[in-house]
Design goal:
The chain has a domain at about 1-155 and about 190-215 and about 265-275: Rossmann fold, CATH 3.40.50. The chain has 11 helices and 13 strands. The chain has helices spanning about 15-20, 50-55, 75-90, 125-140, 160-170, 190-205, 220-230, 240-250, 250-255, 265-270, 280-285; strands at about 1-5, 25-30, 40-45, 60, 100-105, 115, 145-155, 155, 185, 190, 210-215, 220, 260-265. α3 packs parallel to α4 (about 125-140), α7 packs parallel to α11 (about 280-285) and α8 (about 240-250) packs across α9.
């Protein structure tokens, strides 16, 4: 299969490209800097990329600046939006057929307390919810001839990057603990299951529309920190005060750290996908 991966040199993209190459696919990585590509054939946005996209059997769009890397200033918000919409708009206007798998996020649901959220839940409030809605609407402009699947990822766990990598140092030093009161829900997913879910979507022609890609058993933040402490054989009792997070991160603290979503992967499981790491302890032991 001829596949183009936008954002194929990042935390999700690079291991995905390696996985697809291992099974024999022809994989091109659409990137702004070819020197960052360590797997797959690099094609640059500044070059003749449109012919590659138009000829591809599938495009997997993972492009977008990291939400968690710093305070949300107005300028940074503009960059977060542009990094997603510019890439997605360019791709959908080039596609003529085939499959588009577009990344998304459970931030769509906004802070929702204890409410259980499946794919039919309405959009929530806040910057993240608005950003994700714009991102998904851009993908939905793909031509009718394109099979479109939108994957809303939860908190992706792998020790090489993402949220877990940021948590490891304080826990290893014995000063880890819950964020704020620890009551907020964390809808997590093991990175290996994310890669498997993308591959499943790619290989199942009936897979269309929106899917939540989160493990079947979300946990509260306090339970997450306890599980991480157990996995590392370290204490997990020193909370990070909410006021300190608000001072450091402003709006991002309330939307991305001190609140959460209780998300379920109803559609993807109903259509036959099975998560290998269903519980947090299983995932953390493996990592």
């Amino acid at each position: 299969m001829k596949i183009v991966v936008a954002g194929g040199s990042g935390f999700l993209g690079e291991p995905l490209v390696r996985r697809l190459l291992a099974r024999g696919d022809d994989v091109a990585v659409l990137t702004r800097n070819a020197s960052h590509v360590r797997a797959g054939r690099p094609i640059e946005w500044q070059g003749p990329w449109k012919a590659e996209v138009a000829a591809a059997d599938a495009v997997i769009n993972l492009a977008g600046e990291n939400i968690g890397e710093g305070r949300w200033t107005e300028e940074r918000k503009r960059r977060l939006i542009a990094s997603r919409l510019d890439a997605t708009n360019a791709i959908v206007t080039t596609l003529q057929g085939g499959t588009l798998i577009n990344a998304s996020a459970i931030g769509y649901y906004g802070p929702r307390g204890d409410e259980v959220l499946d794919e039919n839940a309405p959009r929530g409030e806040g910057f993240l919810a608005e950003l994700v809605e714009k991102w998904e609407k851009a993908a939905q402009q793909a031509p009718p001839s394109v099979r479109l699947a939108i994957l809303r990822f939860g908190v992706v766990l792998d020790k090489s990057g993402g949220a877990l990598a940021k948590m490891l140092l304080p826990f290893r030093l014995g000063v880890g603990g819950p964020i704020g009161n620890g009551q907020q829900w964390m809808s997590w997913v093991d990175r290996e299951d994310v890669l498997r879910a993308i591959e499943w979507t790619l290989d199942h022609p009936s897979a269309r529309g929106v899917y939540n890609i989160t493990a079947p058993e979300p946990v509260r933040n306090r339970d997450f920190t306890r599980a991480l402490g157990r996995a590392l054989h370290r204490p997990a009792f020193m909370p990070v005060p909410a006021f300190a997070l608000r001072l450091l991160f402003g709006e991002m603290a309330d939307e991305a750290l001190l609140s959460g979503q209780r998300v379920t992967p109803g559609r993807v499981e109903g259509e036959g996908f099975r998560f290998e790491k269903r519980t947090l302890d299983e995932s953390l032991r493996g990592l």
